[in-house]
Amino acid sequence: MANHSRPHICQCLTRLASVKRNAVVTVYGNRKRTGREFVDGVLSLAAGLIRLGLRNGNVVSIAAFNSDLFLEWLLAVALVGGVVAPLNYRWSLKEAKMAMLLVEPVLLVTDETCVSWCIDVQNGDIPSLKWRVLMESTSTDFANERNQFLTTEMLKQRTLVPSLATYAWASDDAVVICFTSGTTGRPKGVTISHLAFITQSLAKIAIAGYGEDDVYLHTSPLVHIGGLSSAMAMLMVGACHVLLPKFDAKTALQVMEQNHITCFITVPAMMADLIRVNRTTKNGAENRGVRKILNGGGSLSSELLKEAVNIFPCARILSAYGMTEACSSLTFMTLHDPTQESFKVTYPLLNQPKQGTCVGKPAPHIELMVKLDEDSSRVGKILTRGPHTMLRYWGHQVAQENVETSESRSNEAWLDTGDIGAFDEFGNLWLIGRSNGRIKTGGENVYPEEVEAVLVEHPGIVSAVVIGVIDTRLGEMVVACVRLQEKWIWSDVENRKGSFQLSSETLKHHCRTQNLTGFKIPKRFVRWEKQFPLTTTGKVKRDEVRRQVLSHFQIMTSSL
Known about the structure:
- Helix content is 29%, strand content 27%.
- With 560 residues, the protein is α/β, with parallel strands linked by helices.
């Protein structure tokens, strides 16, 4: 008999079927479904999967854009005790095969965008694969594929909608495998439990204030932990989900108005796109319906935040810091609160002469610890532990990578975030940089993120990436690549007049006025014309930036 005191992500279905029975809970294009219709869809699909032969602990890979059916598949697989392993639709077929060989799925589900993967892996490339399913296809271009594969509707056919009586669990309560890049370039499968998702969802509900009256726009892909964890929070409170296949700023702004969106999540690049499109197509018009915005994947610059407040004046804007291995967010900070006449949290903190970027305070369920460096009284590795952390990397018996043991708490494992930071006197966590990304210059440690945080505070800088370049004298030289704001020009002449001109000397002066230590100030600046190369999660590919810099400058030497 199932033990219903155990956490399970499908426990949200009971509430949806009752409290939201006749209310719309999903919107995908012209298709709208009530709570009862959505739950019936999950239960019918789950029954079809059992009849097909899916068993506890079986892995199901899903490669698809966001849709209501993606949510349905996530919950149906979980309901029968399966484990969902979303594949990034931006991957090449080679990358997708590497991920599948790691997690050994028995079933592959794709939409039309990734249907070629179903075709190309049918010849024994993935030995574990038994079934291939086309999630949905209405296009005549895929008539032949519909005859080759199972479909969602086929699995639901001739299935009476069962009652929501029992749940099943994988042997170790695993429910999702999220892929993250390993140091070798091969994907690593972060194994996440039901408890981790529920704990994370409750934190988001408590801190962001999500409720059943919210209308949530899915801007983040459901293949990433940010999109998945926020989706789970919305399922738990019974909010309405509005799903776009993939993020597009123009479409997103239109959908916000048409569907009366109240909340969404962003990364800085998304917010920049929304601001740019709003400025060009809507003449900077306000959207007063949005009430909650949660930003992750990097900090919002003060300029982006000001513009976001202008567009969404009624929104409480929060930032979150986290990682896939911790099921998303570890800390939260309110950047703007329209209910307070004079809200000043972020700017006073960021204007203090401190290192790095402030990311706020830990969520109620989170334990964080800074393991101090031997040569530092306040800076060290950021460690975390608790029910939110991953079970392990798939293929490992325990979460043995990234684990530290605290000497003060013997034999109790802490997860190493890979970040370096410090707590201030108010309990706020400050990020200094990545432990594996630091630059060693003249025997001193420089964390790129700390320098970048200072540079982007200059009104002429949109974004900056700081790298270390081999130098015969210093070991590594600090080099900053910068993107300029519109109407600013680069003129590397020290005394040339003009308020909209930038030079190496003006940026060095800016760093000094922000109390950046001398050895941390970049020795060289590179003007970057295009967007910085990003990962699929919106983070800068620092190694690619370094490679491009070195390809243009064969020899770079410091002048000191």
